[in-house]
Design a protein that fits this description.
It is built from 36 helices and 10 strands. By secondary structure, the protein is α/β, with parallel strands linked by helices. Among the domains are: 181 residues, no CATH class; 82 residues; 93 residues, no CATH class.
Amino acid sequence: MNDKYELKVLGIRHHGAGSCLRVVKALQEYKPDYICVEMPFEATALFPLLLNREIKFPIAFLFFSKLLKSKSLYLPVADFSPELQAILYALNNTIPVSAIDLPSELFFQVDSRSTKYEENLSDDEINMVRDPIGYLAKLDGYKDGERWWELNIEHDTDQVDLFDKIKQMMQYLREQSQYKDDEETLMREAWMKNELVKIIESGKRKIAIVCGAWHAPIFDQIESTSKKLFTDKKFKKLEIAQSLIPWSFQRMALSKYYTAGISSPVWHQFLFEDRTEAISKWLTHAAIIFRKQNYSINTAQIIDAEILTRNIAFLRNHTLPCIDDMLDAAVATFCEGKEELINLVKEKAIVGIQIGQVPLDNSSLPFQIIFFELLKVCKLDKYWKSSEDIIIDLDLRKDHHLKQSNFLHLCRLLNIDFGFVNAEVSSLGNFKESWRLHWQPELDHRVVELSLYGNSIEDVVEEYLKEILNSNSNMKDLASILNHLLKSKVNCRSELIVGKILESTSYESDLIILANTINPLYSITQFGSLFNYETQIIEDIISNIVPKCILVLQSTTKELDREYSKKLLTAIQILDNFIVSSKLYEKEWEICLYKLNDSRSNNTMVSGKIWQILLNRNVDLEDRFMAEINFIFESGEENNQVDWIEGFLSQHTQFFYFPKRLVLAIHSWLISLSEDSFRSVLVFLRRVFADISSIEKNKIYELLKVNKYENKSNDEILYLLAESRRTLINDII
C-alpha cells in the first residue's frame, strides 16, 4: 500500500452543534479529496437523496431485513448532526463520500452485549470501555458525562485542533483498556479500517474521517487490520431494504431508549444556526410557549433573562451558557421564582416538537407509495405530520367518510397506530364513528417494515395475517383483527380468522378473554350493511360466547386477587352493556346477577359492582341495599369496605338513578372512620373519583349539601361532621 496519504480523523458526538460546526470548519480548511462517515455501509446509496429540497430535517436512515423482520436499524440526523453536514459538504463540493461502517446485514447478526472481553480488565478499565465520556467527566470532577462533554467540548465550536485533543484522550483510554471491547464494536472497527485501506489503494490521498470519538484512535495503524473477525463467523446473506423516513426532536432526545441522543435538540439547533444569537432565540422560543399557555411574558423579561443567563454562566465558569443556566434564568424572570411553572413548557422548550419531512421517490418501496397515495386520496395526509391529537367524526353513510373509515381500520389492522376509535364519544349514533388521530415518527418506520411483506395492500395483509394465524393470539385479539379486517374492506382470510375464533370458543374458560371478545364482534354486526359483509356467522359466535360468560361468571367470583378482580369488573360491565344494548339474554343475566347477589361468599369488589348494576335496573332494591351497606360497613374490615366501594363506583356509575339516602349512607361511613383510616381511604377516593364524570360528581355534591338551619334528620352524623373532613370530601368530588 502506498504510504503517501494523509488522514484527518474528526472524532465527534453524533448529535452536537459544536462538533458539527468544527467538522464543517475542518473540512473547509483541510480540503479532502475523499470523505468517510461512520454509518452503515448501505447508507452510501441514500446520500444523493439528501440534496432533495423537499427534505426537512430531522430524518432517519432506516435499514430492514426481510429475513429478520423483528430487527431494524435507524440512524437519526438533524441539521446539527456532524455526519449529515459532512455528507452535504461532500455532495455540494463534488467530493466522493461513503459510509464505511459495518453493513447493516452484519449488524443484525453480531452480539453487541457480549462482556467476555471484560474478563481480563480491572473495574477501572471496564468503566473506561462502558462509558468513556463518563469516566473522563469523573476525572474532571463531574458526575454527569453528558454535562461535562457539553460544557468542555460542544461549546467550543471554532478550535479545529480540539479534534486532535479528543483523539489523544480516547487513545489514552483505549491503550489503558488494551483496545478491548464487545464483538460488535471490534467488528465495526475492523470493517472501517478495511474500507479505508481500499480507499487509499484506489489512489485517494487526502482523506477525512468523521466518526464517534471512541473510534478515532484506531485509524493510526490501518495496516494492522485483520479479517479474522469476519472469516471465523458464518453470516447469512440478508436482503436489506433501506429508506429515509421523517423523525422528530422528541425521538432524538437523550433517553434510556436512545442513549446517543442529546438533552436539548432545540438548543443545539439554535447553536448550529447562530451561536451569537442562540441564547436570545432560545429564551424567545420559551417565552412564546409560555404565551400559548396564557402566561404573559414581555420583551423586557426576555432581555432580563438573557442578562441573568450570562451572569449565571460567568459565576459557574462556563465559556458559553448551557441549557441549565437558561432554565434557571427563565424560572427567575418568567416564573417569578416558581420552579413548578417551568414544567408547563419544559419539554417543548428543551426537546421541541420539530418533525422532519421526506418526499416519496424512487428509493421508496411499493407499499410505501401505495399507502401514502391512499392517505392523500382519503384527505388524511394533513393529519399525518401533526404533533397534536386530532378528533374527527365520520358519518359512514357518506362515501368519503366511509373510505376514511376503511383506511383507518386498515391502519389498526396492520398496527399502524395512527388512529384510535374515540370511545369517549358515545352519542354519535349507529352510523357514526369518532377517531382520535395521533402521528409519531415510528409510524413511518412501521410502513417501511410492512413494505417487506409485499408490494400491494392485499399482499401485505395476506402475509401479516399468516403470521397472526400461526401465532398464539387469543380470542380477543383475533376478534379485534377480524373487526378491522372486515371494516377495511380488504377481502382476505376472514373465514380462517372466524374459524380460529370458533375453535377457541370451545375451550377458552377465562372470563376476561371471553368478555373482551364481545365488543369487537358486536361492533361487526352493527355495521355489516354499511361495510357490505355478512354478519350471521358473527352473531352465531356471540350466541356461543355470551351464555358461556354468564355461566363462567357464577364460578369465578371467589378468592380472587385484587388485579384480577379489577379486570373482572370491566368484563362484567362489558357483558351488561351488551345485554342492555342488544336486548339478548336479559333473563339469563338477571338470574345470574340475583344469584350472585344472594351469596355472601363473593369477592367484595365484585359484590359492589353487582349492586351497582342491580340498582341501575331496579330502584325497588333500596331497602336490601341498605342492609348490604350495614353488613359491609359494620364488619370493621377496612380493606373490604374500600374494595366494595371501588366495585360499586366503577365504570360509569349513574348516581342520578339512586335515592339520596343511598349516597348519604356511604357518606356517613366515610365521616365515621377514625382519622388514620380516613386518611388512607382518602388516597383511594381520589383515584376512584378521577374516573367519574363531572355530571355525576355534581349530582353527588348536590346530594351532600346540608343546610345547618334545616331540621336535623336521621342522618344527624352529617351535621356533626368536622368542617375539615367535609371540605376534604367535597374537594374530591
